[in-house]
Amino acid sequence: MLYHNTLDATLYTQRSAEWAALYLQAFALAELRLLVEVQRRSQAKLSADSFYVVSDLDETLLDNSPYNAWILESGRDFHDSTWSHWCQQRKALATPGAVDFARFVVEHGAHLVYVSSRFEAAREATA
Q1: d(Cα 50, Cα 58) in Å, to the nearest integer?
Q2: Which residue has the higher pLDDT, 27 or 44?
Q3: Residue 58 DSSP one-character state
Q4: Which of 78, 81, 63, 71 is nearest to 23 (CA)?
Q5: d(CA 30, CA 81)
Q6: Distances (CA, A) of 122 to 12, 70, 77, 127
Q7: Could you tell me the pTM of the whole model?
Q8: Do 31 and 99 touch, CB atoms closer than 8 A?
Q9: Of 68, 65, 84, which Cα lies nearest the Cα of 76?
Q10: Within a 10 A sphere around the Cβ of 81, how many other Cβ atoms?
């Protein structure tokens, strides 16, 4: 196989303990910041209906490295059609700590909003 420009990144994502630790660290910090905001809102007697946490979806909450690995194995490059097919397969797993973070957000009265550049046709499969 010829060298592909995403080989190093894909290997790092799928095999590195540091990659997982960085996610866990980022979500832990986000939880601490959320607790501060929960306390502030409680003291100010603010409604939970307007309390939102906004997060990117792909490579923040969802790990798409298997798609990148497939690109490497098949010798292809990113293309809208293969990306759409990947999204429809529902194979993306959560990044380390993402599920616990999402639960933490909801348990503390906030609404979690996901921002994604995925196609509208993939909305149901992504959800």
Answers
A1: 25
A2: 27
A3: B
A4: 63
A5: 34
A6: 27, 19, 20, 9
A7: 0.86
A8: no
A9: 68
A10: 7
List of E strands, 1-127:
52-56, 62-63, 93-94, 111-115
Phi and psi at 47, nearest 5°, equal -70, 140
The residue assigned the tokens 């209906």 is 49
The pair of structure tokens assigned to 122 is: 């993939």
Long-range Cβ pairs for the range 11-15 (8 Å, 24+): 13/63, 13/65, 13/68, 14/65, 14/69
CA-CA-CA-CA dihedral for 118, 59, 99, 71, to nearest 10: 80
Taking only the tens place, the pLDDT of each residue in 46-94 is 876 788 999 999 999 999 999 999 888 888 888 999 999 999 999 999 9
Q: Decide: 72 and 1 in contact? Cβ < 8 Å.
A: yes
